[in-house]
């Protein structure tokens, strides 16, 4: 009997915005969604992580739905798959779990329908599903990314010269993105948007030249979303104060929240995380690194639970 060829996908988590870079700036993190799949007679999804147990175990699973819809976009029929899925990415915590699932689904369609999608095509499809290119780009390409969308055209730049150590403060509470988007204003006054744009530009510039103090100042000066979303994250100010006292140079909501992203100078993550664990209670402190690779795909002859 011939060994079965199993398709493997590994997608990193991401943290968007970094304060003022709303719906544009994101960083890939070393927490992963992993799946393994092969052709089968019917759809079957085995869920290996406790956080995933409430999700569908057939083609109604969101990853499968993305794969089916992506195949349909190219007038292809997606074959049924047997899959195993595990994830380290906390759900509904502002860590790009939905973007990671979308990336995985697009990769499934690309592999099993022979779409031969370019990186740019993958980015456009994932952004269409996700609604904005920040988490999508970080999970696809890794690193610190800046994304933009003009009409249907999506552009992305990976800033591989930016370095910092990321620490996440993850609360037990969930916060759905649609709820945190509801608190945002429909319109922003022109003068306010000019200032907000300048703050985002200054954040990128300060990170690139390693002016940590200025970067932290800009992360706190966001006008686009944090002033409104902080109402839904009542512990934000307390965590920010303790993180800064522990040695972080900048603090911001991770995506839509409620997780909080704290940045330290390269090499200081371990020390700062330990200090934060001593003064921040009831939340998980995750000392992470930037994932510089993005989505990985490969083939192997057997799976971890197939």
Automatic annotation (TrEMBL):
Keyword Cytoplasm in record: yes
Q: What residue stretches are annotated with the GHMP kinase N-terminal domain? A: 61-143
Tell whether Transferase is among the UniProt keywords: yes
Q: State the compartments where it is located.
A: Cytoplasm
InterPro entries assigned to the protein according to its UniProt record, in alphabetical order: GHMP_kinase_C_dom (IPR013750), GHMP_kinase_C_sf (IPR036554), GHMP_kinase_N_dom (IPR006204), GHMP_knse_ATP-bd_CS (IPR006203), Homoserine_kinase (IPR000870), Ribosomal_Su5_D2-typ_SF (IPR020568), Ribsml_uS5_D2-typ_fold_subgr (IPR014721)
GO cellular component terms attached to this protein's record:
cytoplasm
Family, per the entry?
Belongs to the GHMP kinase family. Homoserine kinase subfamily.
Q: What does this protein do?
A: Catalyzes the ATP-dependent phosphorylation of L-homoserine to L-homoserine phosphate.
Q: What is this protein called?
A: Homoserine kinase
Q: Which gene encodes it?
A: thrB
